[in-house]
Amino acid sequence: MLSAKNLFQEILDNDESFRLFCSIAAGGESQGGWENGRIAALAPESRRALVPKIARHGADEDKHGRIFNALLKRRGLRPVEVPHETDYTMLLEQHGVGLAHEQLKRDEPLTEQDIIMYLAHSRVTEQRASEQMALLLRYFADHPDLGRAVKMISNDEDNHLSYCHEELLRLARSGHGRTIQRILRQCALTEIRVYRDVSLAVMDHMGRILGWPRAKAAVLAAAIRGIYAYERLVGWRRMVSLVPPERRDALGSPPVPAPEYA
Question: Whole-prediction pTM value?
Fold first, then answer.
């Protein structure tokens, strides 16, 4: 039976597919950690109060990267080079979502508009991350190797999403509402397209590693395209709504350390 749980289990049970899965995840999280660190360092004077939360966001992302690398090490595996077509964060940047690395490498203060872009981009991508981790949590919370990692990362992603809602609502109340909604919509429509392309590429690599028959690969590709069609029609709206979060000041406390094995 072809189900999300069976698909994940198949990927986790094979060393080479697990290696690729963790390498992709670690690379994206580490890149997010670097980006947040630079944004914290370059935040404008008008938004210096956000710096501890931006830094906490970056510390969490960096921690997640170390966790995925530690999971590889526990199985005696080394990271592999992430194929270009599976690099979600890099492809988002290339499509204009978020702040460009070229800008973040310069020692020039960011603007208020840059901070809005950062938070809007994060609100969209953290929605995706929160949903993905919730799915893994549903199936693997009790897994002997993945359980602790999945629980911690899922909780962190929910915190990040709450933080984005809270800060964007604060900016909207100060007069940036229309700008925020415009940027959120642009980010969401681009993200769902990039996510589709990356998902197809990842499944193609996994299929070749695991020797999937053409029929299975075709069904999975059709499912990914079906999800994209739904998201392009109405699903993107969940990524642009802003509501007061249940978790208030979610990034206002020190980060939780990674599990001992990380």
Answer: 0.94
